[in-house]
Write a structure and sequence with these properties.
- With 158 residues, the protein is α/β, with parallel strands linked by helices.
- Helices cover 43% and strands 16% of the residues.
- The protein is built from 5 helices and 6 strands.
- β4, α3 and β5 form a beta-alpha-beta unit.
- α3 runs antiparallel to α4.
- It starts with 5 loop residues before the first strand and ends in a 7-residue tail after the last helix.
């Protein structure tokens, strides 16, 4: 039996939860929706709500401890993406941007630079608004990641 594909969603402020549920249902893939407060999820045995403590980075730690090859992590959190990529997981941002071994270092450096510039008051505001194009790119990236894992021998839950 092959290892089942699992999707971990860093659910706080994630704009693509409904898309994750749709793609996961089509592929019959288990989804863990991880947050530090109660969050409504569809009544589906393949979708599991995980409420972690309110501690700093508790949701990130829960996801990172389980991330491995055969898992897909959905997050906009660059440090969490780095931890999960390092563990072998496929990581996708809500805009459809894949985080890979090749791209995560630059993403981390850019994040740290922007954090420093914001702290000095040189930059204000955050990322651009989430768009329909982002949603479409995300759906494509998630579907592609699942298909790639299936081709690599990862399978369905029991």
């Amino acid at each position: 039996m092959s290892q089942a594909i699992e999707i971990y969603v860093d659910a706080d402020a994630c704009p693509v939860k409904a898309e994750v549920y749709r793609v996961a249902e089509r592929h019959r893939v288990k989804v863990f929706v991880v947050a530090n407060s109660f969050m409504a999820v569809p009544n589906d045995p393949l979708i599991e709500r995980v409420v972690v403590s309110a501690g700093f980075d508790a949701a990130d730690d829960w996801i990172a401890e389980r991330a491995k090859r055969g898992c897909i992590v959905i997050t906009a959190d660059i440090p969490l993406a780095h931890r999960c990529v390092s563990a072998g997981a496929d990581v996708i941002g809500p805009t459809g941007r894949p985080f890979t071994e090749a791209s995560i270092g630059m993403a981390l450096a850019t994040r740290n630079l922007m954090e420093d510039l914001r702290a000095m008051g040189d930059v204000s505001g955050g990322p651009k608004p989430f768009s329909a194009k982002d949603r479409s790119a995300f759906l494509s990236a998630l579907d592609l990641a699942i298909v790639r894992l299936k081709r690599a021998g990862f399978g369905q839950p029991e």
